[in-house]
Amino acid sequence: MANTNPTIIQWNINGFQKKKDELDLIIQDHNPQIICLQESNFKENHIAPLKNYKVYSKNRLEAGRASGGTSIYVKAFIPSQTLNILSDLEVLAVQIEMKEKLTICNIYLPNQKKFRKIDIENIIQQLPTPFILLGDFNAHSPIWGSIKTDPRGKEIETLLEKDNIALLNDSTPTHINIANGNFSCIDLTLCSASLAHRIEWKVLPDIFSSDHIPIKIIFTPRTGDSNKNKYSRWNLKNPNWTLFSEMVDDEVSKLPNSNQSNINEMVNTFTTILTQTAEKTIGSHTNQTFKPKVPWWNDTIKEAIKNKKEALSIFKKNKTQEHFILLKKLRAKSKFLIKNSKKESWKKFTSTINNNTH
User: Fold this and answer.
1) Domain 7-219, what fold?
2) Is 315 left (phi over 0), alpha (psi -120 to 50) or beta?
3) How far apart are CA 342 and CA 19, in angstroms?
């Protein structure tokens, strides 16, 4: 059964517009309630919508050049509001409410941007608890899987000495250098220490056009409802309507001959009879709601992505030049197939449009 707890996708997408198709695939496969993107690369006040999501963005204000920036997408049905964070860093925070309030803070720290521990502490002090602070920190430390420690990593290491902050990373690489095949761990997920035991953190087993690998975070609300994304339906494949009618008539005949002046009581009584009889004679089943496939999805793309995932897994275990070249080829192939399939799907759709189309 699919996990119905709230899911967060964390990803340095390195350009929203060119990676939108791949983001659609991630949404299709994981149905996240929240998506946190770094390097969305929007120009100034530009906002890119996603169907069924409310978007919050903080874009880098560089005239005429799209770069950097952070975005948070929240499912439209989830109550959410942006929080005003005073900082010189590229940071965006949103508070959501899913059985309990949770603060999501998304940060992008480019290599050329210097920061100190106090800068991150200043942000954390402004976040209502509990919180999840995630993003591309471009910081290295063996604590989260890097082979070296750099000055930025030392700042984060010192920050983690505080008792109220926990690191969720498990040393799995989150970044691949496409030029040489080297892996690194520079995308971090921090949270309130009280929250850590209720979060499942893992890097997805696939790479896309971005050099960063998406991260999936599953959050268990304190009073979460496991039936949130389920609904019950009557099993109408082979209903026994004759038995249903007979049992309803029998139950109605047992009702006392009293004049119920309250119409609501009469309706409730009859509804209860119908429901209980249907449960005995028809039965019901529970369905899980899933997001439909994107219109350009096909078996060829499915197979290409499967092969790419397998190549990534093999390369992680055997880092040879041969395996790296194969991974790059399969990565390029899946990107090509997605682009072409989407183009053909659009052509097919537009060919059906005529004067009678509504």
Assistant:
1) Deoxyribonuclease I; Chain A (3.60.10)
2) alpha
3) 13
- Contact 174/187 with Cβ under 8 angstroms? yes
User: Residue 231 and residue 285: Cα distance in Å, rounded?
Assistant: 9
SS3 state of residue 47 = coil
CA 209 to chain centre: 18
CA distance 95 to 74: 10
Q: What is the token pair recorded at 350?
A: 């537009």
For the record, the structure tokens of 296 come out as: 């350009």
Place of tokens 């198709």: 21
208-235 pLDDT tens trace: 778 899 999 998 877 544 444 444 556 6
pTM of the model: 0.68
Give the span between the Cα atoms of 132 and 104, in whole angstroms.
5
d(CA 147, CA 118): 25
Alpha helices for 262-320 (secondary structure H): 263-281, 299-317
Helix axes 299-317, 321-351, angle to 10 degrees: 160
Asked if 185 contacts 171 with a C-beta cutoff of 8 angstroms, the reply is: yes
Query: Which among 184, 220, 180 has a CA at the least distance from the CA of 200?
Result: 220
Would you say 328 and 178 are in contact if contact means Cβ atoms under 8 Å apart?
yes
* Total residue count of the chain as it appears in this document: 358
Contact 108, 69 (CB under 8 A): yes
Between 64 and 94, name the one with better pLDDT. 94
Q: Cβ distance 158 to 184 under 8 Å? A: no
Placement of tokens 């790296």 in the chain: 324
